Give the backbone structure.
Amino acid sequence: MTAPDPGALVRRLQECFNTRAFDQADDLFTPDFFSHALGTTGFEAGKNAWRALVTRFPDVRVVAEDVLVDGDRVAIRSSVDGVPDGGDRPMLLEIFRVHDGRLAEMWGIGQGLPFSAETLGPATQ
C-alpha cells in the first residue's frame, strides 16, 4: 500500500475544516500528534479550537494558496475568508510533519487574523 501524498493529506485536512467535518479529520493525525501552535498533544484540542473559531466566525474557511512538499514536511500558505480583516487578506502559514501517512506535528503562524492560538484554546504545559 502506498502512503498518501503529504500535500493531499493537508488539503484533506482543510476540506474537513471547511465542511465542518471535524470528526472525519481524526484519522488524518497520529495518536501523539503535537501542535506547537496550541502546545498540545493529540487532535482533540485542535477540534476544540476549530469549534471555537467557527462559533465566533460562522463563515470562516481556508483556501490553499501554496502547498510545498519536501520529504515528510508540508508547508501550506492559506488565505482565510469569512473573518473581519484590517484591509489585508488574513493569511496562515503552517508546516506539518507527516509520519506513516498521517500528520504528526504542526507549526503555524498567522497574519492579519482577528484571533490567535491563545484565544482559541489554552496551551498545556
